[in-house]
Design a protein that fits this description.
Elements: E1 2-6, H1 10-22, E2 26-30, H2 33-42, E3 47-51, H3 59-68, E4 74-79, H4 84-92, E5 97-100, H5 105-117, E6 127-129, E7 132-135, E8 140-143, E9 146-147, H6 152-163, H7 171-178, H8 189-201, E10 208-210, E11 214-216
Helix pairs in contact: 2-3, 6-8
Organism: Streptomyces katrae
Keywords: DNA-binding, Phosphoprotein, Transcription, Transcription regulation, Two-component regulatory system
Protein name: Transcriptional regulatory protein CutR
Length: about 220
């Protein structure tokens, strides 16, 4: 899952991004509304965590622009105000969910994951395919009943492949969904991560390489 965090309190923004990355999400961070508009114009995000009170361009205007563009991106709006009228107003702008500050990080993560599931065809919370069971909320993976310990990026790659339900996912798509924008697009990190993932999942191999196209399960 790829997430954009838009928050002008840099310590909070960086803390949220770090926490979401530990949950195997690819996260980009910006600190004002103008930068947010620039990012959503060039990258496909599953979820935007959007502070409402932003400098340069207000969060309301960022939300409106996302809606105008007809993007599948879901918006989780944040605000320091807990007033019900503010929440209603934010939802009426087109935000998909609303979370007042201060918030529990576990709740933020759960809401981001719930919104992320709504950007694609509805799938069950626990994904199962080819003898593999993946639970994004618990960060657990089992193959034929055996628990498999994965690093965050390995987990993210496996989740993208599982959600594709047997269709081919290109290396570029994996790079976009599992890594942030600072990753060198010419790196071999996808190939190396898939190799490590195959080894950890064990025999017989379940990740198939489709020459010239990508990977599938």
């Amino acid at each position: 899952m790829r997430v954009l965090v838009v928050e002008d309190e840099q310590l909070l923004a960086d803390a949220v991004a770090t926490g979401l990355r530990r949950e195997a999400m690819a996260v980009d961070v910006v600190y004002d509304g103008a930068a947010a508009l620039e990012r959503v114009g060039v990258n496909d995000y599953d979820v935007v965590v959007l502070d409402r009170d932003l400098p340069l361009v207000h969060g309301d205007d960022v939300c409106r622009k996302i809606i105008e563009l007809g993007m599948a991106t879901r918006v989780l709006m944040l605000t320091a105000s807990g007033d019900v009228s503010d929440r209603v107003e934010g939802l009426e702008l087109g935000a998909d969910d609303y979370l007042p500050k201060p918030f529990a990080f576990t709740e933020l993560t759960a809401r981001v994951r719930a919104l992320g599931r709504r950007t694609t065809v509805a799938l069950p919370p626990v994904l199962e395919r080819a003898g593999i069971k993946l639970d994004p909320n618990r960060r657990e993976v089992f193959r034929e009943g055996r628990e498999v310990q994965l690093a965050p990026k390995e987990f993210a790659v496996l989740e993208v492949l599982m959600r594709s339900e047997g269709t081919v996912v290109s290396a570029e798509q994996l790079l976009e969904k599992a890594w942030d924008e600072n990753t060198d697009p010419f790196t071999n990190v996808v190939r190396v991560t898939v190799m490590t993932l195959r080894r950890k999942l064990g025999e017989p191999p379940v990740i198939v390489t489709v020459p010239g196209s990508g990977y599938r399960i």
